[in-house]
Amino acid sequence: MRAFEDHARDATGYLTGEERLDGWSVAEYVSHVGDNLRQWSERIQAARLTGRPDVAGYDPDALAEARGYAFIPLEVGLWSAGNAAQRWADALAAAIEEGVELQHATRGLQRAEDVVRNNCHDAYHHIWDIRRIAEASASNGRRPLMAEPPNHYLGADPIVQSDHPDVVALGQELRDRHAGDAEFAKAAFNWVRDNIAHAYDAQDHRVTLTASQVLAEGVGLCYAKSNLLTAILRSQGIPAGLCYQRLGDPEEGHVLHGLVAVHLDGAWHRQDPRGNKAGIDAQFSLGNEQLAYVIDERKGERDYPRLYFSAADEVVEALGKATDVLACPLPSDLSAG
User: Fold this and answer.
1) What is residue 261's three-state secondary structure?
2) What are phi and psi of 110, to 5 degrees?
3) Separation of alpha carbons 118 and 55, rounded Å
4) Where is average pLDDT lowest: 88-102, 116-130, 142-156?
């Protein structure tokens, strides 16, 4: 149970928390688990510390309404449930060692071991509910990401140069005009999409990879443009990572395509800054994705679930040794997708 928050984050991926099927939303399920663990921790501690073993039941739906689950952001619910899980684990470990027993109004005698079994079943049953919702969302075009906690996707490296003076200056210029995080992220997306030419569209042979190179040269492939957008977002404290798709078909061949995922409103949202042209209309969105390409799995295309801190090794290897980006062989797959 101590790992509940990690398991819940893995299940929620980049869902907003508002998704639902026929019951609670993703965020409401997470808040319920946190409250249930908290309640049982208090009951156990009451028996341990005051010798009061009697407990009554409660109505989960009434508690959800009273607590306002519908208004608790997913990220807050995950944090709260994670804290509750740690305290629950401490309390129940002590209760098992001490042989604590409760007397439930409807269930009767509840040993500490019974509480552990029931609470774990409840928590991980709701992880299954969340995965069910995620799968339904994926069938409607949303793909859950395998991501670390959001603060992992801050900071700089030699490619995503969020600390480069030119990147920071551009980020600050955009932030000065767009104070809200969502508004700033949209402005940064639009700037990169519209002001940095896609090398293939422009038939520009120059090779760029790092954020500062892309900004200085004003051109890059999808990977390079994504590196710059990620750096701009991070420069202003917004978690952002890199993710990928495989496009094409077996006859013509497959090629890797680069995207950005931004963490806002408690969830990850994929964005495609490659640049628009006839037949492509990628837009910034925190709701339904509007990417440049729609995946066709029948052709071997796919969304890779992993969210990267920096550019994938395959991208760095291909562009790092290239002298002409239009003649450079591009990666067709990820070894650790």
Assistant:
1) strand
2) -130, 105
3) 15
4) 142-156
pLDDT digits (tens, 9 = 90+) for 171-207: 999 999 999 999 999 999 999 999 999 999 999 999 9
Query: Would residue 144 count as lying in a domain?
Result: no
Phi, psi of 323 (to 5 degrees): -115, -15
**What is the gyration radius of the CA atoms in the chain, in angstroms?**
24
Say whether both 133 and 163 belong to one domain: no
Closest CA to 337 of 317, 308, 297: 308
3-class DSSP assignment, residue 28: helix
DSSP-assigned beta bridge partners for residue 110: 102
User: Could you tell me the sign of the dihedral formed by the alpha carbons of 53, 57, 62, 64, in that order?
Assistant: positive
What is the pTM assigned to this prediction? 0.64
The count of structural domains within the chain is 2
When pLDDT is averaged across residues 321-326 and rounded to a whole number, the result is 95
Annotate 78-108 with DSSP letters as a single string. Answer: HHHHHHHHHHHHHHHHHHHHHT-EEEETTTE
DSSP bridge partners of 94 = none
Domain assignment of residue 68, yes or no: yes
Structural domain including 283 reads 150-320
Q: Mind listing the pLDDT tens digit for each residue in 41-66?
A: 999 999 999 999 999 989 999 999 99
Residues 78 and 101 in one domain: yes
Cβ atoms within 10 Å of 334's Cβ, excluding its own: 17
CB 104 within 8 A of CB 57: yes
Rounded distance between C-alpha atoms, residue 20 and residue 321, angstroms: 47
Supply the CATH number for residue 242's domain. Answer: 3.10.620.30
Question: Which SS3 state, helix, strand or coil, does residue 198 take?
Answer: strand
120 and 176 together in one domain: no
72 and 121: one domain?
A: yes
Verify that 31 and 57 share a domain, yes or no.
Answer: yes
Please, what is the Cα angle at 124 between 123 and 130, to 5 degrees?
95
Residue with tokens 């969210």: 307
